[in-house]
Amino acid sequence: MTVPSVTPSQVRSALLLRDEIALLDLRHEAEYATGHPLFAANMAADRIALEAETRLPRKDVPIVVYDAGEGLVARAADRLAALGYTNVRQLDGGLKAWQAVGYELFQDVNSYAKAFGELVESRRHTPSLAADEVAALIANNANIAILDVRRFDEYATMNIPGSISVPGAELVYRAGRAAPDPETTIIVNCAGRTRSIIGTQSLINAGVPNRVLALRNGTIGWTLAQQDLEHGADRRGGIGAFEGAKANAREVAYRAGVRHVRPEEANALKARSNRTLYRFDIRAGEDYAAGHIGGFRHYPGGQLVQEVDIAAPVRGARILLTDNMGMRADMTASWLAQMGWETYVLDGGYDGALEVGPPEVLPKPDPSHRYRRPYEGTDVATRAMQAYLDWEYGLVEQLRRDATHGFFVI
Fold first, then answer.
1. CA distances from 221 to 137, 217, 387 (A)
2. How high does pLDDT run on average in the chain?
3. Tens digit of pLDDT for each residue in 325-362?
4. Number of structural domains the chain divides into
5. Over 80: is that where the pLDDT of 304 sits?
6. What pLDDT is attached to residue 374?
7. pLDDT of residue 42
8. Which one, of 339, 288, 302, 344, lies nearest residue 319 by Cα?
9. CA–CA separation, 19 vs 22, rounded Å?
10. Are 258 and 235 members of one domain?
11. What angle do CA 383, 389, 390 make, to 5 degrees?
């Protein structure tokens, strides 16, 4: 089939105007990570049949596909057409044309979430401590609580000694239990920078009474400082919000422009067939499995903020979040709204019939096609870790040059 084309400037205009567009990089993740437009989402051509209908729920959404000269476009367009997608075009000249006209390429994966995290730190001066400073606090038995905001499997692989697992969106919901004494200093860590910055700023924004700081550069910084990590830990933070957390979280969401809707209003959003609506249940996996509202896909809130390009590749779409306790959805929504998403939180909906069962999980890609993150595993070269940090430090300036992001920071 002949695939109609659009120019790089037309794609850029759609992004600036916040029109709906799914800009899809058809290469495998390892190649995608070498450089791509800021809002390009990775969907390898040979995974379209596995992923498209989950990640691209509206069949007439504008889709623009590209490669870097590998000849993937025609086959990908055929696969999308076979699935019923009716508005598929190719980027005229592919990735090389995007670069030739002077537009920015961003390395790594989840790039715009990471760039946003750097912007948050730059604008809010999110407080942090270096690894050696945190190690000294641990050695001196200081009154601290170290909260690891990564996925639990990442935490179990390697963690800061004495830390407990409190994945991203669970922070405000569990901080009162993890650090019941307001004199306890809370230190938030992830593997690198983004999730610890967002986690630390979430607690600050929500008004936790404790002093809160990020572990600067996470487990990468810890390793580069030649500090020892624990392995195989199983400490999980219990449920318990600090006083006022629920009301404060809602106020944070309001300030970010998040709108709350009742079930009948959520149904009206769903009925708008000319707009893409992503619906996510952002609670922990066990909460989702025990009972969830039909039609909501599971995506834990902290990971959703970090991986929104994977979860919601249609830039300009709407996002509706649900959480039976409210505060996790409010805090997650506040960040998505600041990242330029039209974001809603569902009020109620849990008093009717709920579906029971584990989350849908997309099959993992072939490991040989996957980009090896410099912050995962225990055998990463120190030079790769340092290069990754250096890249992150430059993201705010790269955002300025690119000028398509539309982010704001409350």
1. 16, 5, 12
2. 96
3. 999 999 999 999 999 999 999 999 999 899 999 999 99
4. 3
5. yes
6. 82
7. 98
8. 344
9. 10
10. no
11. 85
